[in-house]
Specification:
By secondary structure, the chain is mainly β. It has a single domain (about 25-420), classed as Methylamine Dehydrogenase, Chain H (7 Propeller). Helix content is about 0%, strand content about 45%. The protein has one helix at about 15; strands at about 30, 45-50, 55-60, 70-75, 80, 95, 100-105, 110-115, 125-130, 135-140, 145-150, 160, 160-165, 175, 180-190, 195-205, 205-215, 220, 225, 230-240, 245-250, 265-270, 280-285, 295-300, 305-310, 315-320, 325, 330, 345-350, 355-365, 370-375, 385-390, 395, 395-405, 410-415, 425-430. Strands 12, 15, 16, 17, 18 and 19 form a 6-stranded antiparallel sheet that branches. The longest helix is centred in the first third of the chain and has 4 residues, at about 15. The radius of gyration is 20 Å and the shape is globular. The model is unreliable at about 5-25 (pLDDT under 50).
Length: about 425
């Protein structure tokens, strides 16, 4: 990805903003995405495809539905993305590999499921699912395959989980209902290059999962993974040989409050053995609400599982070996913050050669945030120290990360709300893979 022209605002030294024992981070100086200044209102999404280049997508200012989706393709000035009608870059879901997939509420009564062959192409949108008062959505992509999962709800918040699979250059397949009816609080999905799909969800206090075989073209039976009060955040990952993991945050949230300390649980399976009993790997000491995206899971190309989450005082991560969950590691001072739920974990990206990076937002004071990233080198057993990606910025948030296959670098983009005479903007930085 070609970096755009540097935005003319004060940039503090990464070395001064990082922890004292940490050397200056090897990240490029943050720059403004061309065309984002004064035009960015939604969270950015870094979309790196295998062969068709890259884009940073974000909503222009305006209310949803109706706010246009903008894209900056390979560092070019941002412009409206053709076909992206009523796309929500903050609450919708994007994923990219050979192709790009999007899923999100259409702002009326259906779910938009859309495919773009590449960052420079127009979206092909289809309306999916039954009539619904809204939808919880998630997407995943791998070579030759993309998948969208979503839950619908109506009276009493009762609904089901649905999956739409897409392979090769084909149009998306039929909408498949894969769960029973209930109160669906969260949904997660993952896909591998063989077309195997793992979906997981919380249905009325029971965490369930279901796997699709790309070889037999059949869905297995629903499996129960655990019991919760309310899994409000969830993530899933599946490896090349069908090893898989599901992680979730158990913490009900009602009108910005909670009556339960957050707990974090993980369960994993191997290619030959099913999911182990869920393991609780962390618990909050108080009723602070988990910030950021809360939890992310992935497999590296060499088969190591990773789960990362927002801990109370730090973003944390653990490696997964088979069905065994490793000890948590504190990655950076970006834990949950009672004053601002934008702080915490945001993204987990992996490269084709076994490397990974976790992005987070840390609070420096009551106003200023900083985007940090912790790298995992190929074969390493622990993450490296958190590195400063951004300057100290008022309310900087929503960092999205991806690996650029053309340059071999990790790319992170984040949103900076307007402050005084400085307008809304999206900033971006990149780092050579560790």
């Amino acid at each position: 990805m070609t970096l755009p022209k540097i935005l003319g605002v004060a940039v503090l030294s990464a070395a001064l903003l990082a922890p004292p024992a940490q050397a200056a981070a090897p990240w490029s100086e943050p720059t403004a995405v061309p065309g984002s200044s004064g035009q960015s209102a939604g969270a950015p999404n870094v979309l790196e495809t295998n062969t068709r280049g890259s884009a940073i997508a974000f909503n222009a200012p305006g209310s949803f539905p109706g706010a246009p989706l903008l894209r900056s393709v390979d560092g070019a000035p941002a412009a409206q993305w053709p076909g992206a009608v009523n796309f929500d870059s903050t609450f919708g879901a994007f994923a990219a590999a050979d192709r790009i997939i999007y899923a999100g509420s259409d702002g009326e009564r259906r779910v938009n499921v859309a495919i773009a062959p590449g960052p420079g192409n127009e979206w092909r949108v289809q309306k999916r699912g039954p009539s619904t008062g809204g939808a919880r959505v998630t997407t995943a992509a791998a070579p030759k395959h993309t998948v969208a999962a979503f839950s619908t709800f109506g009276p009493g918040d009762i609904g089901s989980v649905y999956v739409v699979r897409q392979s090769g250059v084909n149009a998306p397949g039929a909408t498949e209902r894969i769960s029973g009816r209930g109160h669906i609080r969260s949904v997660a999905v993952a896909v591998n290059a063989a077309g195997d799909v793992l979906a997981a969800w919380d249905r009325s206090g029971t965490v369930e999962s279901r796997m699709y075989s790309g070889r037999s073209h059949r869905w297995a039976a629903v499996k129960t993974l655990g019991k919760v009060t309310a899994a409000m955040h969830m993530s899933a990952a599946i490896g090349a040989d069908r090893r898989a993991l599901v992680a979730w945050v158990d913490q009900p949230i009602n009108e910005g409050g909670t009556n339960k300390a957050a707990t974090f649980s993980v369960t994993a399976r191997t290619a030959t053995r099913g999911f182990a009993a869920a393991k609780q790997v962390d618990v909050y000491p108080d009723l602070t609400i988990v910030g950021g995206t809360a939890v992310r899971a992935a497999y590296t190309s060499d088969g190591r599982g990773i789960v990362a989450w927002t801990g109370r005082s730090a973003v944390r991560a653990a490696l997964v070996n088979g069905r065994s969950i490793g000890a948590p590691q504190d990655l950076g001072p970006a834990g949950a913050d009672e004053s601002q739920d934008a702080r915490g974990l945001y993204d987990l990206a992996v490269s084709p050669d076994g490397q990974a990076i976790v992005t987070m937002v840390a609070g420096l004071d009551s106003t200023n945030n900083q985007v940090l990233a912790a790298p995992l080198a190929a074969g390493a057993t622990v993450f490296g120290p958190a590195e400063a990606v951004s300057a100290a910025l008022p309310f900087a948030q929503q960092p999205s990360a991806a690996f650029d296959r053309q340059t071999g670098q990790f790319v992170v983009a984040w949103q900076v709300p307007s402050q005084g005479e400085v307008p809304n903007r999206v900033e971006v930085s990149q780092r050579p893979a560790p």
